[in-house]
Amino acid sequence: MNHTTHTKPSKDIGMLLCWVTLVVCLVLLVVLKPSHQALKTDPDAALERLQEGNERFAAGESQYPHLDAKRLALAGTEDQGKHAYATVIACSDSRVPVERIFDAGIMDIFVVRVAGNVINTDEAGSIEYGLAHVHTPVLVVLGHTQCGAVTAVTKALQGHSHALERNIPPLIAPIKPAVRKAMNDHPELAHEDGVVPYAIENNVWQAIEDLFMQSAATRALVEEEKVKVVGAIYDVGTGKVHWLSEDKVETILDKVVDDPDRSMSPLAAGPDSGQPGQAHQ
Description:
This protein has twelve helices and five strands. It is α/β, with parallel strands linked by helices. The chain is globular. The protein starts with 7 loop residues before the first helix and ends in a 24-residue tail after the last helix. The model is unreliable at 25-32 and 275-281 (pLDDT under 50).
């Protein structure tokens, strides 16, 4: 009897299946990974990129993207508006290295930093530039644990104030409403250090409200769904970003839209954008 076996065809089929599987995986990888164009136009895709980057950073698995000589050369020849996918306003605290905690690199994030992540005129203008001119589709207002500015304001309102350099009080003045609200909401902690974390979160919400009040341009971009504004708290001890409720941002926006004192015009009155009396017209 002839017991000849035919193994070659089965091997060929196995190899073919391996190649098909590999191709399918590569196609899915390309399809599922947000394109660069999506990062520039889709707020959810840009936010997801930030979230994934922070997860890598907190897990000690950073990829350190866009830090090589090729990216530097690109930065020397191209507009950042073609590349940056997020605007982030954060505290100046040295424990909050913005690009690093989102595992981002050169021309990835338009960063605004100021003590206490407050939003006054300079910060609002910088944010408007990031959203309207760099065309980033997401804005993150990033607070952080152990914030010195919020803690200092809390201590002052608890009766433990001390003399400050002349330019610091107006800088941190926008933090006071956030601290007062935390004290009112948690009277049992009003004179304790335990009220500070609540004040830190409130300060993020206060900054978002201040931005919406000052910036009709930002409000318009959000209402047109071209930009998403989100609040977050960075834990300086773990490296993790805690993302706050997006519904709360919508509630704040609705409140501001009904406020007669909100800024009305998204654009400056003329070429002299520093003309007095234009802030709330």
